[in-house]
Amino acid sequence: MLTSFAGRSVIVTGGSKGIGKGIARVFANSGAKVVVVSRHIAEAEATAEEFRAKGGTAMGFAADITSMGDMQMLADATVKAYGGIDILCANAGIFPQTKIEELSPEDWAFVSDTNLKGTFLSVKACLPYLKKSDQGRIVITSSITGPVTGFPGWSHYAATKAGQLGFMRTACIELAKYGITVNAVLPGNIATEGLADLGPEYAQSMANSIPLKKLGTVEDIGYAALFLASKEAAYITGQTIIVDGGQILPESMDALAQA
Ligand code: NAP
């Protein structure tokens, strides 16, 4: 049983849908005060309203993680509304799929700016307030793609997801003196709204390649983030938790077939 999150203030970037919504929901259900962030206020606020309707404390905020100004406004608004920032879940990210031969420098820069620079900017803007928390926590949503595995069309994406871990490993050393921990969750294939659009056959073929034979839920990622943000995880920093149903483990297709 984890110490209660009641009263703790958490920002979830990309919290309006997908994995970020799962993370935000788990925190809201645990009593935390949640800021749901996306570039579109209607979507962020609709998600926050869902949480409020179930008794949670939540507000939507429109901000682009590639903008330092937006991130500063987000941090300031959170402190104004909730009195501080205890937890940052740097989750927002994009994953357009383009193979290297067609990939342009602009494509590369767009994905890098969002996933990698956006992680840095959200941490930088929240840092002055996280320092004031007695239990500052940063949880980054990386991926198995990049740090552990590869997939055609995602060279730029994979580089940003591995890059987030490089950032984390230095950030955790720099921020340790403030009692702030920095960790990452590495999701495998998670059932999000975007995946549902690809149809049940695609989802089933992905599930077949996973030892647990099913896709992860967005809450599976939320529970890992909640643990890393808990009081009980105070001595864990600079680490990763892979949440993938065992997906990265079979050394060949035969390894799954023989199980
Ligand atoms: P998603 O369903 O497409 O949701 C992405 C979220 O990020 C949305 O709330 C989106 O809202 C927001 N967002 C995108 N760009 C933004 C920006 N520049 N500024 C602020 N918000 C922005 O994505 P997802 O599948 O949940 O992925 C979330 C994270 O999990 C990503 O970091 C991704 O790399 C990682 N991940 C996902 C999977 C998976 O299976 N889905 C697997 C491994 C890792 P707006 O569009 O309204 O801004």
Give an overview in words.
The chain is α/β, with parallel strands linked by helices. Helices cover 45% and strands 14% of the residues. It contains 9 helices and 7 strands, in the order βαβαβαβαβαβαααβα. It has a 7-stranded parallel beta sheet with strand order 3-2-1-4-5-6-7, with helices on both faces. Helix 3 (68-82) packs parallel to helix 4. The radius of gyration is 18 Å and the shape is globular. It starts with 8 loop residues before the first strand and ends with a helix. The mean pLDDT is 97. The structure holds NADP nicotinamide-adenine-dinucleotide phosphate (NAP). NADP nicotinamide-adenine-dinucleotide phosphate binds at residues 13-14, 16-20, 38-40, 43, 64-66, 91-95, 114, 118, 141, 143, 187, 189-190, 192-194.
Q: What portion of residues is helical?
A: 40-55%
Indicate the mean pLDDT.
Answer: 97
Count of distinct strands = 7
Query: Which fold does the CATH topology refer to?
Result: Rossmann fold
Structural category:
alpha/beta
Low-confidence stretches: none
Please give the radius of gyration in angstroms. Answer: 18 Å
Number of distinct helices: 9
Q: Tell me the count of domains.
A: 1
Query: Bound small molecules, which ones?
Result: NADP nicotinamide-adenine-dinucleotide phosphate
